[in-house]
Design brief:
There is one protein chain. Helices cover 40% and strands 18% of the residues. The strands form two sheets. It has a ten-stranded mixed β-sheet with strand order 2-1-3-12-11-4-5-10-8-9, sandwiched between helices. A two-stranded antiparallel ribbon has the order 6-7. The chain has two domains: 1-99 and 261-341, Isopropylmalate Dehydrogenase (3-Layer(aba) Sandwich); 115-245, Isopropylmalate Dehydrogenase, CATH 3.40.718. Helix 1 (13-27) packs parallel to helix 12. The chain has helices spanning 13-27, 40-46, 52-60, 86-94, 118-121, 156-169, 184-200, 211-220, 232-243, 284-297, 301-316, 330-339, and strands spanning 3-9, 32-35, 63-68, 99-104, 126-131, 141-144, 147-150, 173-178, 205-210, 227-230, 253-257, 263-267. The longest helix has 17 residues, at 184-200. The chain is α/β, with parallel strands linked by helices. Strand 11 and strand 12 form a beta hairpin. The protein binds 1,4-dihydronicotinamide adenine dinucleotide (NAI), 2-OXO-4-methylpentanoic acid (COI) and magnesium ion. The site of 1,4-dihydronicotinamide adenine dinucleotide has 22 residues, from loops.
């Protein structure tokens, strides 16, 4: 019986986690869930964003499912203070999850929900492969005497493994996104990507794109992209931007892979404090994260595909939460998906 470490977190995290569990229970009755408080909920209960016991439970689980963490209650500018987001960084690094897959597939039923013209988003099928355990978010940082700094470091090995993950996920083209006209880390990134391409994946096209131009092309020519492989912060920003091809940030799931133990699954979005407690969060990114858990975490392709197909059908029939221009509540969207299973 696979055991899932369930970390609902903060804000809309618990609201969308409830939805995902209902859907998972409909396709996989043998899963068990151990719930733990992390993020702001962890700070309130234990004084830390994630306890050692929770980390140990995650490591011992078969997969980790996380809602979202953070929110104004726990925001602080105090140097060295505990932050709700520390739970994420601890989990990603602690589980060795360096490869974050963010698939972006606008559904025909939602072409009208995107601010982009239908002609631009038709048949987009893109994967952002974001490096998740290095770069600016993990570098040394500090604030002193009116000066603040963050450091951006990448090693050859860190770049090699994420670039390989990008090529393995691609059929024909990888776009490596960097800022090699400015940053040394990006120049190293580009050199390593070029070498790995030549040595290991010569039949796949590799192109290099500067991040500012890539951000523009995501909007002007999104169909051009198949796999984008990029560093931690660029991938974070580009994927929120790309979410609008699907109509809403609330649509996107992610899989964080690459460790020796369990993988982690969470939506792209955060805790959405502006809509917390209203029952209106779009649960689809979280439900689809459950599908990715079934596929990548437990090797259950048929069940994963069943969940994805149920989501497609529910949207085809017209269910829309508010972020997609509709009026359906979180519970109503979840019910519509369940009815298709
Ligand atoms: N993986 C995680 O746990 C993440 C946590 N955060 C944290 O979340 C907090 C809020 O961050 P924000 O910048 O506001 O980003 P956010 O992603 O929480 O929200 C951005 C906007 O998108 C909307 N939105 C997000 N998810 C939605 C959903 N499922 N349905 C409908 N609308 C949705 C929100 O209402 C908001 O207007 C911060 O503390 C941040 O650090 C942010 C991103 C990821
Ligand atoms: C705390 C942030 C780095 C979380 C986030 O925005 C993400 O992982 O996408
Ligand atoms: Mg983000």
């Amino acid at each position: 019986m696979p055991n899932i470490a369930l970390l609902p977190g903060d804000g809309i995290g618990p609201e969308v986690a409830t939805a995902a569990i209902e859907v998972l229970n409909a396709v996989a009755t043998d899963l068990t869930y151990d719930e733990h408080k992390v993020g702001g909920a962890g700070i309130d209960e234990y004084g830390v964003a994630m306890t050692d016991d929770t980390m140990a439970a995650c490591k011992a689980s078969d997969a980790v499912l996380l809602g979202a963490v953070g929110g104004p209650k726990w925001d602080t500018n105090e140097t060295g203070a505990v932050r709700a987001e520390d739970a994420l960084f601890g989990l990603r690094a602690g589980l060795g999850l360096y490869a974050n897959l963010r698939p972006i597939r606008p559904l025909p039923a939602l072409y009208d929900a995107s601010p982009l013209k239908r002609e631009l988003i038709e048949n987009v099928d893109m994967l952002i492969v974001r490096e998740l355990t290095g770069g600016l978010y993990y570098g040394e940082r500090g604030t002193k005497d009116g000066r603040a700094y963050d450091t951006l470091v990448y090693t050859v090995e860190e770049i090699e493994r994420i670039v390989r993950a990008g090529f393995r996920a691609a059929k024909s083209r990888v776009t490596s996104v960097d800022k090699a006209n400015v940053l040394d880390t990006s120049r190293l990134w580009r050199d390593v990507a070029t070498r790995i391409h030549a040595e290991e994946f010569p039949t796949i096209e590799l192109e290099h794109e500067l991040v500012d131009a890539a951000a523009m092309k995501l909007i002007s020519a999104p169909r051009h992209f198949e796999v984008i492989v990029t560093e931690n912060m660029f991938g974070d920003i580009l994927s929120d931007e790309a979410s609008m091809l699907t109509g809403s940030l609330g649509m996107l799931p992610t899989a964080s892979l690459g460790g020796d133990g369990p993988s982690m699954f969470e939506p792209v979005h955060g805790s959405a404090p502006d809509i917390t407690g209203q029952g209106i969060a779009n649960p689809i990114g979280m439900i689809l994260s459950g599908a990715l858990l079934l596929r990548h975490g437990l090797g259950r392709e048929a069940e994963a595909a069943a969940v994805e197909s149920a989501v497609d059908k529910a949207l085809d029939k017209g269910i829309r939460s508010r972020d997609l221009g509709g009026t359906a509540t979180t519970a109503e969207v979840t019910k519509a998906v369940l009815e298709e299973l």
